[in-house]
Amino acid sequence: MWSYSFEFPTLTILLIILGFYFSRPRLPIKRSTAFVHMIIIETLIIIFDILATAVDNNYASYSIALIKALNALYFIAFFDRAYIMYVFSISVLKDSPLSIVIIRMLIMLPMSAGILLSIISAFFGSADFPYVIFYIDSSGYHSGNLYNLLYVSGFFYALLALIAVFVFSKKTGRRREKYGILIYNLAILAALIIRLCLPKHLIMDTLILIAILIVFLAFGNPDFYLDLRGNSFNKPALSKYLEEYKGRLKLQPFGVAIRDYQAMRDLYESSQMEEGLVMIAKYMHRLFPKGLVFYCRKGRFIILDQPGKDYREEIKALAKLFEHPLRSNTAELYLSAGFVTFDRVIGNYSSETLLSTMLKALESVGATESEEVLNVNEEDIKRTDTEKSIRHCIEKALEGDGFELYLQPIINAKTGKVIGAEALSRIRDFNGDIIPPGLFIPVAEKSGRINKLGELVFDRTCRFIKENSLKKMGMEWINVNLSPLQFLCPDLGDKYSSIMKKYGIEPDTVHLEITEESMIDDLILQKQMMTMGEKGFLFVLDDYGTGYSNLSRLKKCPFINVKIDMSIVRDYCKEPDDILPNMIQTFKNMGFSITAEGIESEEMATTMKEIGCDLLQGYLYSKPLPINEFVDKYLI
Ligand code: C2E
Ligand code: MG
Ligand code: MG
Fold first, then answer.
1. Tens digit of pLDDT for each residue in 140-159?
2. Ligand 1 atom 35: the closest Cα is on which residue?
3. Residue 239 covered by a domain
4. Do 12 and 84 belong together in one domain?
């Protein structure tokens, strides 16, 4: 006799989860499908189990056909469950092994064999032919010789899932998902072991329910992907969706950004603002009945709708919506919005790249008053992709891999000999090609890695000075570039001092170049320069003529040298005027020496020398060189 007292509460809880699941909007991804499939199949298993057990216990009162059918259905569902629980497990992997047809067929083999055998059991199983899962005869239910295939397939799928998730752990999503799946599969293994040890007590389903609850609580709850009180999906949902449809995104994206979101939120307070956003989300559902609406925080909506749509009508409708205040019982808001359309996404871009391109575009329309619809094309996506790979190369460079220091000589205009050099950094991409600083410095600034990168350049320069005698190369100093952002770091001076101390170098051998287009607050810059000046650091104003430096700023900050930007040098050499010579004279009267950048010919050198430049730098003398080539060329 079987005891099924555990089955009823288990079934009740499952039905509650099922009801909850169907009451919430679900993101159409494989994981949701696998989860729904899993709960439905588990519910069916319990129902078939109860019914089959009931008829097996009183086999004499029921027809053999009914007993056979119920048992066969139970075993079919049992084999299917093992497989679908595996499918759910591997949904945490970024790339599913099931996308390869042969692998999928091989993995499905135990399930298919089990289902086939369950059907054969019902039709052909008997005491004379016991090579089946079960058979029914006049004395009721009997397990067949192949009954243990049930356990074989159960263990096979649970162990395969554990191996897949842990062997490919780098391709797994979040940690929570990985550990959720670990405990989930351990619960499945425990369920199988309990069934093996206590076959007469139907406890297995209770343990399977626990496994389902674990993943539901860890990451299967549809609420994790919802925002705006369930009226839209959230940013992680969009990221997950884009990840799953990588390279084959059919739905057409469209973006709506609330203008000046932060200011509006301050004005209306968060609860009223949320109310307004909920109203907008609801309106979008009416406007895009078949589309997916995602809310990506900060007033940014992204809609994925039918392929090939141009969204002209929808833009008109939305523009109309924002012409009037958004009114509800608790809110009245005047908002406006900007729109973004997207060219069809063709390439195989990562969800990270697509999402950040979309959000960047939304941010920019949200920040302008222009009524124009912004269109994002493949080039914009490629640019984000390049930026992403540059970020990786910067990280690699910071670990000392692919970073190189180059030096470009600076010539004393009077003697024509090398007197110093400028240190310029280079990093290499994954193919070993050089990424120019014009590309990676802005990315390092945006990603907050510029301080580390600056320290690395400074460290390598100091090391170079320690390992090579500057005097033997006829040099007095090396200039190092500083990003204006580095000035926001209050302990910049201390850090650089300690690097110098490490190599036993005097501060006057490394001059710090600051570009003049620096947008940083004058006061911060001045204060930092003063503090560092007290420690003995010397400063050079770089790229003069490209930014907004004025004389009073120059007077306030302790510079020793001004570098005239190559564009100004070039213009002057082409069409001389009085402005530059007068400017240079004024600088010299203020006590600064002058460097001319970008000298490419003897004529340019002569011209710049004539108007008072003390130092000359440019391809005429040398391009920037890797440090070993520089030493070979200039060591006397
Ligand atoms: P910059 O500091 O003005 O450096 C001079 C740039 O002009 C260098 O470009 C150099 O190769 C180039 N150059 C020198 N002479 C000539 C010439 O005769 N003709 C032409 N066409 N170009 C010449 P590079 O190395 O590509 O660096 C570009 C900018 O990147 C630098 O401009 C500097 O602002 C920044 N940078 C380079 N390394 C670093 C660094 O380590 N840290 C920071 N914060 N910025 C750096
Ligand atoms: Mg420079
Ligand atoms: Mg410069």
1. 899 999 999 999 999 999 99
2. 437
3. yes
4. yes
Question: Does 360 share its domain with 401?
Answer: no
Name the phi and psi angles at 529, rounded to 5. Answer: -65, -40
| Backbone conformation region of residue 230, classed left if phi is above 0, alpha if psi is from -120 to 50, else beta | left
Residues with CB under 5 A from ligand 2 (ion): 481, 513, 542
* Structural domain containing residue 306: 225-376
Domain end, chosen from 376, 403, 427, is at: 376
Domain limit, last residue, from 322, 353, 376: 376
506 with 531, same domain: the answer is yes
Instruction: Report which ligand 1 atom has the smallest distance to the Cα of 619.
Output: 18
For ligand 1, atom 37, which residue shows the shortest CA distance? 424
Average pLDDT value for residue range 399-419: 94
- Ligand 1 is surrounded, with C-beta below 6 A, by 408, 424-425, 436-438, 441, 454, 457, 481-483, 513, 515, 542-543, 566, 597-600, 617-619, 624
In this structure, are 366 and 393 located in the same domain?
Answer: no
Confidence of residue 3 (pLDDT cuts 50, 70, 90): low
Whole-angstrom distance, CA of residue 192 vs CA of residue 151? 7
Cβ atoms 253, 304 nearer than 8 A? yes
CATH code for the domain in which residue 315 is found: 3.30.70.270
Confidence band for 519, pLDDT divided at 50, 70 and 90: low
Distance 290 CA to ligand 1 centre (A): 52
pTM of the model: 0.77
The kind and range of the H/E element at 35 are helix 30-57
Assigned domain for 381 exists:
no
| φ and ψ at residue 487, rounded to 5 degrees | -70, -15
* pLDDT over 80 (residue 235): yes
> Whole-angstrom Cα distance, residue 607 to residue 570?
11
Domains of the chain: total: 3
